[in-house]
Write a structure and sequence with these properties.
Layout: H1 5-34, H2 46-66, H3 69-76, H4 83-100, H5 110-133, H6 140-153, H7 160-175
Helix pairs in contact: 1-5, 2-7, 4-5, 4-6, 5-7
Length: 176
């Protein structure tokens, strides 16, 4: 079963809008950094703080990879599930991964955390939209196949790479 052109266009438009918002936020942050608008005061234990921040960025990059749709599908693939059961399993797995790393937000910039949240929301939206377009008698395998086809045919639909690059950029700023 495949996704219709209208459904595909809707998903692409949503992804492009989210990517545009994310790109704007990071452009704005870079501009502020170049103008000296970001003033980070260094505490006495700057080295320990720097390590905590770097570890947080590392964990969030790993999180972004783990909640990417291809990786979610690969880890959650269970033959014999209905489309609704697979949808539930994928969204539950995604939420658990996110919740497990929620404390990392205290170590990273608000923009970085917002990027991770946007990735989570976008992936939940894609999973739920694709599942809603499949017939009730579809299987979990049909959902997984449709999700992977969508990502393969339209790599820009996923914010995964944009978020990972933005997190890596911020981590490099912490190292400087």
């Amino acid at each position: 079963m495949s996704i219709s052109n209208t459904q595909l266009i809707i998903s692409i438009v949503i992804a492009v809008v989210l990517a545009g918002i994310l790109a704007f936020l990071f452009w704005k942050q870079r501009k502020q950094a170049k103008l000296g608008g970001i003033n980070m005061e260094k505490p006495d234990n700057a080295s320990a703080t720097r390590m905590l921040k770097l570890q947080a960025y590392e964990r969030l990059i790993l999180l972004a990879d783990r909640i990417s749709i291809p990786n979610l599908v690969g880890r959650s693939n269970q033959p014999g599930l209905s489309v609704r059961d697979m949808q539930s399993l994928l969204t539950q797995t995604l939420r658990q991964e996110f919740d497990h790393n929620i404390t990392q937000q205290i170590y990273v910039s608000p923009e970085a955390w917002e990027a991770v949240r946007n990735l989570r929301e976008q992936n939940l939206l894609i999973i739920n939209q694709v599942a809603s377009f499949l017939p009730a008698e579809a299987t979990g395998q049909d959902l997984n196949k449709s999700l992977l086809e969508l990502i393969m045919q339209n790599p820009k639909v996923s914010l995964h790479n944009v978020v990972a690059d933005a997190l890596a950029f911020e981590a490099k700023k912490v190292m400087d």
